Amino acid sequence: MDNYSDILWEKSINYKWCKNYEKTIELLNASLELSPYHVESLMLLGEVYFELKEYEEAIVCFKKIKNIDFSQDLDHITKEEYDFDRCFSLRLLAKSYFEMEDYNNSLEMCKELILLNYRISNPYDIVSKIYNRIGQHLKSEYFYKLYKKRKREIKRNSKKLRCIW
Predict the structure, then answer these.
(1) What is the DSSP string of the chain?
(2) What is the tens place of the pLDDT at every residue in 7-57?
(3) Is the pTM of this model over 0.90?
(4) Which end of the chain has the least Cβ crowding within 10 Å, N or C?
(5) Measuring CA to CA, which residue among 5, 150, 139 is closest to residue 91?
(6) Predicted pLDDT of residue 162
(7) Distance CA 150, CA 118 (A)
(8) Distance (Å, whole) CA 65 – CA 75
(9) What is the pLDDT of residues 72-88, one digit of tens each?
(10) How far apart, in whole angstroms, are the C-alpha atoms of residue 55 and residue 61?
């Protein structure tokens, strides 16, 4: 059924671009009824809820992605695609917790991202904002500098990748 889930997911993208969130959510839920581990549908549904500032609903979607066991549950995407989606969902999970002022969970998600050390991962901006919000300005400054440094590394690495292709 993943094939039909893919079709529903692709249709939902168009509705999201038109900001028809009701129809987007309807299609994504239909996709997930057919294939509960359809990562792309979970990811897009979480993004929609995040944009609508429905952070609790977004967290449910991002947590599902975080807890999927790639080796057992997924056959419709590659490991690299899953790693990218997992990394992106952890970042949005951290941002959702941040927006709900749940700084402990937000920091935990940032720690997971740092440990993943994925080539596009740069959660230090969120960490910096958390420490700024709770009044620990020296830590905030330190993590902002790490964010800038990591941003330069990612940019440099992406240029190297373009040269290879």
Answers:
(1) -HHHHHHHHHHHHHHHHTT-HHHHHHHHHHHHHH-TT-HHHHHHHHHHHHHTT-HHHHHHHHHHHHH--HHHH--SS-HHHHHHHHHHHHHHHHHHHHHTT-HHHHHHHHHHHHHHT-TT--THHHHHHHHHHTT-HHHHHHHHHHHHHHHHHHHHHHHHHHHH-
(2) 999 999 999 999 999 999 999 999 999 998 888 999 999 999 999 999 999
(3) no
(4) C
(5) 150
(6) 43
(7) 11
(8) 14
(9) 656 667 777 777 888 88
(10) 10
Q: Give me the residue spans of the domains in the chain.
A: 2-121, 123-165
The total number of residues shown for the chain amounts to 165
Answer for the pair 40, 77: CB distance below 8 angstroms, yes or no: yes
C-alpha–C-alpha distance, residues 78 and 105, integer Å: 28
Closest of 83, 136, 126 to residue 105, by C-alpha: 126
In the numeric block, which tokens belong to residue 33? 């009824």
* Spatial separation of the C-alpha atoms in residues 164 and 133, rounded to whole Å: 41
- Is the predicted pLDDT of residue 160 greater than 80, yes or no? no
Asked if residues 47 and 11 have their Cβ atoms less than 8 Å apart, the reply is no
